[in-house]
Amino acid sequence: MKNNYKVNGKLTLFFIIVFAYVGVSQIKDEEQIKKLYDTALTDGAGYDWLNYLSNQIGGRLSGSIQAQQAVDYTKAQLDSLGLDKVWLQPVMVPKWVRGTPEFAYFETSPGTTTNVPICAIGGSVATSPNGVKANIVEVQGIEQLAALGKDKIQGKIVFFNKPMDPTQINTFTAYSSCVDQRYAGALEASEYGAVGVIIRSMNLRLDDYPHTGAMSYGNQIVSERIPAAAISTNAAELLSTSLKLNPEINFYFKQNCKQYNDVESYNVIGEIKGTTKPEEVIVVGGHLDSWDLGDGSHDDGAGCVQSMEVLNLFKKTGYKPKRTVRVVLFMNEENGLRGGKKYAEVANAKNEKHIFALESDSGGFSPRGFTFEGSNKGFEKVLEWKSLFKPYLIHYFEQGFSGADIGPLKKEGMLLAGLRPDSQRYFDHHHAENDTFEHVNKRELQLGAASMASLIYLVDKYGF
């Protein structure tokens, strides 16, 4: 009996010590996380960085002068933080140029026309110098092309008018359900003899901004490619109503875009070397390129400066990571994903050990949490930290998509994550002229950066 008391007593003492250690560790985590949030909200640099990217440089279309200016500027800012290493990683990227502003109208009777706002879809071919004018036929998605058949489409402009579903609370789900008409609409419609396509903008709001985005012709030869343009949601509603009254409406549009040969650009990379496990790499990043209509503040200037801010907050709070923490500003996410693929290619060639990657590419709105992709074991570990985020109203920890640029890094057993801000206003600005600096709230932006820094801190401290 005495021996049992001794054994039980030792076990009790062991558990007391363990629980005390866990309690002290949690208090230290709470203190460090609070320090990260406090510093972000009072002494963060991200908003000023974004101001410069947006208002002094502007839209950063892949292969453009502005994209190169953004590379130079962000590298200089990372250099100023006193990181252990900052460098540029060369990558060849596509160069597509919009040209002079697009023009469009629909004609209800000879000489009676109504101008409508459009923009060329990224990667589209130009119209002829005189533009394209033809009868227009409306469809609610790619699947309706087959039902109409070639007889009803040949020689016409196809109007893809499938809207984003407003009943979807997750607006990215609504986007995913109809973005195929933008990406592949021209390719599919050309198979039925269409001479052009007009696509309803990917936007839940009714407004006058056309939204661009990427498209693909697949392996189609150049001579068979037809021009593609997006039309604003207000104009799409008007055009649809007018077609119901008069199915013989003609539509005219003209655009002057052009695809050039690939050019060299760069991923911008900076890192703090780990103190005890420098061979283990944690990545945080966003994409530096944007579309050209606005200045790319939400998509994805916000994600870039938030990622830079993570390292800045570590430096300012005096936190020295055990593992190497690396910020990567990827080039060419919007129309090629070349930067993300190149980074993964080089990392694999060097046999680098990446244990975690976090991406911010959903706008600079109020953070709600994270989605996690990959290792179930890693996800279970992250869930143990969820309570530490509760004071900051970060509550969404779910499995799901992480990010396009970090996707190529994915390996068995690795965990990837994406910052998830409130998405309700995101598609009001996505790929449109109104994706501009004044629509980014400083406090929301910095809260997102602090949330990212806190997650990176916990991954660095505890690993998987």
Automatic annotation (TrEMBL):
GO molecular function: carboxypeptidase activity; metal ion binding; metallodipeptidase activity
Family matches, as Gene3D superfamilies: 3.50.30.30, Zn peptidases
Segments passing through the bilayer: none
InterPro entries: CPQ, Peptidase_M28
Major subcellular site: endoplasmic reticulum
UniProt GO cellular component terms: extracellular region; lysosome
Gene Ontology process terms (BP): proteolysis
Cellular localization per UniProt: Endoplasmic reticulum; Golgi apparatus; Lysosome; Secreted
Domain Peptidase M28: 267-450
Superkingdom to which the source organism belongs: Bacteria
Keywords of this entry: Carboxypeptidase, Endoplasmic reticulum, Glycoprotein, Golgi apparatus, Hydrolase, Lysosome, Metal-binding, Metalloprotease, Protease, Secreted, Signal, Zinc, Zymogen
Subunit-structure text: Homodimer. The monomeric form is inactive while the homodimer is active.
Matches recorded under PANTHER family: CARBOXYPEPTIDASE Q, PROTEASE FAMILY M28 PLASMA GLUTAMATE CARBOXYPEPTIDASE-RELATED
Protein's recorded name: Carboxypeptidase Q
